[in-house]
Amino acid sequence: MLDEFPGTLISTEWHSAGYTPGDSDFEECYYYDNFGGCYGARASLYGVGGIPHTEWNGIYDLTGGWANGNWEPAYNYFIGFYNDLIGTETPYEIIINGIKDGSTVNYEITVSMDDDYSVQNQKVEIIVVEDNIMSYWAGANQDHNARNVARYWIGTEDLTINSAGQSQTFSGSFEIDEEAWNSDSVKIISMVQNYGNYEVFQVQEINVNEFDTDQDGVVNNEDNCEADYNPGQEDIDGDGLGDACDLCDNTNIYIPGNVSGDYWYYDTSSLEPTVTIDVFDVLKLSEIIVSGEEESCGYQAGDLTGDGDVNIIDVIALASFIMDGAF
Amino acid sequence: MKNLYIILLISLPFAQQLDPVDMAVEELRTIVEAASRSSQRVFVDDFTGLN
Question: Rounded to whole angstroms, how far apart are CA atoms B17 and B41?
């Protein structure tokens, strides 16, 4: 069903060690600082006594199941729940954004309201999940693609807004466990939930690799300036860094080998410049190494070996490439 | 006084014309607000493993 209704049906799997394949680590989820505490904390909200058990927006539930992990009969119940809940009016909208720097994720969750609603018992949940984990379930004798397995229930925050036009932002950070999690599949899920009757009023999710920090319509993974608004992705010198954030000037063209950054127009009627890599670049690279100008724009362009260090080996490599006509 | 009557006579039909325009704007506002109102997505707490 998650594939059938992407974007409008969002789930989280909560696992306990007792109901999880022995070779999996699904139960390894932090509830605040409590390792392995997620299942117990979440199940206690709904009085879950065992599995199978699903809760739909905290309003509908289906307990019990069918033999051998056969979910097909349950679909008829689920689709009824879904159709009844989807698209109803809610005063809340949630936007999740942030920036991923290595294994550190800084997030910002904004809840806004377009209608008035009481703030009593209204909470905001912030949950980190890992999607698409294959495991073998011996009881059902089949492989199972676990979706959105809870990894870190960061917390439950108080919602303090209650009028149309208001918004509230929750921000924080967490570390991706690079050894245990597939970092490509880590998502943040956030929802507005009432802690009186546990009704979910709105929910949103985002893969941490699909943040659009500068909100220019280009997700960070594909954005040549993650933190600078540049919907056109202009990159006049073609060095992969957009003009909006290019530390090197955009007048010269610093691409690998063109250490001097110079260019000329072979065809004066064309806007495409021509870059020539020649002995002057070798001389410039030598000069950079001797002077130790590690901050210069030519330094990066001179790292021909790609090892992050610019030295005599790069000079030899550049000279070899030129003599071989590699450029 | 004559001028006042003229002004009143001119202004009356325009004043009456404002009502339907106001109603149309109000209807439009209602439609736009309803269309832009947030609609609910569905969240499943899954203690089992739903596909």
Answer: 43
